[in-house]
Amino acid sequence: MHFRHILSALGRHRIAVCLLVLEIAFSCAVVCNALFLIGTRLERMHRPSGADEAHIVQVRVGSIASGLAEATMAQTRTDLAALRAIPGVADVSIVNQTLFGNSFNGTGVGLTDAPNAPTTTVTQYLGNAQLAGTLGLKLVDGRWFKPDEFVSDEQLEGEGATVPVIITRAMAEHFFPGQSAAGKVIYAFGTNRVVGVVDRLVQPRDYGPAESYEYAMLFPVNLSYAQGTYLLRVKDASQRDAVIRAALQALKTDGPLRLISSKYANTLEAARDEYYRNDRAMAWMLVGVCLLLLIVTAVGIGGLASFWVAQRRRQIGIRRAIGAMRSDILRYFQTENFLIATLGIVLGMVLAYGLNLLLMLHYELGRLPGWYFPVGAVTLWIIGQLAVLGPALRASNVPPVVATRSV
User: pTM for this structure?
Assistant: First the structure.
């Protein structure tokens, strides 16, 4: 088979070929970037948080009226004891903000307390002695807090405060690259000495640059129920719903009139699902766009191939009459489609790169990895060959007797 003959035949249908090339190029550009966006969404949705999400439930209690701090703290201790007594509960704690929540509680952290010194915004978790165990955090350097290091919320931010802090590995590598962070000093609430480093704990929600998502620190603070959310670690993940019902009942039974509702109690996995609901919707929408574009492209390729088969029916009959095999006719149309698809894919890769640069400029998207280009190319080649297969088979079945008929 001579490519010169195929190119000569395509040259007589320039407009149709150009339109098909542009259609393939557009599909290639959009599909490559859409798949990249889907991949980034999926990666974002499945980022590990550092917590044992499968075994954690959270219950928020709303305070109707402000009371004495001593009474509120006493009620908090009563609540913690009642929650800890629920069958199937391994540990209970209270924290100022929850993972995958609606708020971000952070502060600027620096290596010096000099005025106008550069700082990095880091999320802060305040909790009692059971917080690390309830979350299932893993210590990789230093130690946990000692019992005598826990303070009140007011003492944390008091003048001259020197409350110790536990930070994440990512934060330690940011501030003290290549060094052990244990024993080092940072400045967040006064002077804070790092006593430990945990493997991972992320922000409650995305805030700031992507690299700061794992910058977090824990402070030893005893909070009241009015200042945070109860976290319960269950022994068996299958009992989470039962534990939530028992926790709500326990809180309603023992304590003053408060806002206690199942709307404010859920599993940490449910909180993650709700937080990433928009990301899932975006991913499915992009999947739909990709499928629609590929279907339209396949229909365009198949339709044009069918038109050409009908136009060349007598020519095909002549080739069959002078000895061309069915496989020769089939291979001719598949090769013709391969050449058109290749032109469209090459142009599409250029457009895909340009579209990615545009998205990087306006939406802070990462650079499109190079391996997306061959994946997109192979996908469109396969779709093109499958789309042209039906018309090509019909062409290969044209009998030689067609050559003897009048045009």
Answer: 0.79
